[in-house]
Amino acid sequence: MENLWNEYSPLIIEYGTGLIYAILVLVIGLYIVSLITKSAKKLMMKGALDISLVPFLTSLINIGLKILVVISALSMLGIEMTSFIALLGAAGLAVGMALSGTLQNFAGGVIILILKPFKVGDVIEAQGYIGSVKEILIFNTILTTFDNKSIILPNGSLATGSMVNYTSQETRRVDWKFGIAYGDDSDHAKKVMMDLITADERVLQDPPPFVALSELGDSSVNFVVRAWVNAGDYWPVFFEMNEKVYKTFSKEGLHIPFPQMDIHLDK
To answer: For 189-201, what is each residue's pLDDT tens digit?
Structure first.
């Protein structure tokens, strides 16, 4: 035992010391990375940086620093980093081919944050979902729907697919379609609808509201009503106008028809 100890003790001491140093570097390094990540996030939140970039950049800083800490810890063990980096590159190529969809989502996240087709807080419609953008992460974007469901959308398809941003413009046009019965006074109906829409202070006068007879339908004479409002007033104005028309038409002698069919029987 004494001979074995005398023979291998230098190696045990050398590698044991390196292992202890590597563990210390790893533990202390990860702790420092956590502090740096938190500090960087606080600085970005306080600064003028777009809030959409904060989660993305925080994740990049965290991952990048952790990789440096791991490489430093491995070098303390005497591992040749040139060979390790070459091996890591080969493994990265294989993993990249296997995770091509994930890398596409990463690239999509970068494109979204650079081009900014939408930002946190915008209301968008994409891939069959409508909601407010809650977070833009490295690989996906999280929407919160109007009924408070969380929808996770991959950034790759968001960056390359079609999308509607409802809040990118300050104003929006509200469209309605109202019908009256055949035999009702069309001029009176136009005046009633125009009076209702212009009485709403949220409706913008430039461009002016528009009312026109658009269609002679099977069961009704249909009118189109259009008005411009601030984007935040879209749904309140839309719903209230529907209610006002329903309550006012009956008072003004106008009738909202339902689908009907006349059947003639021959003897």
So the answer is: 999 999 999 999 9
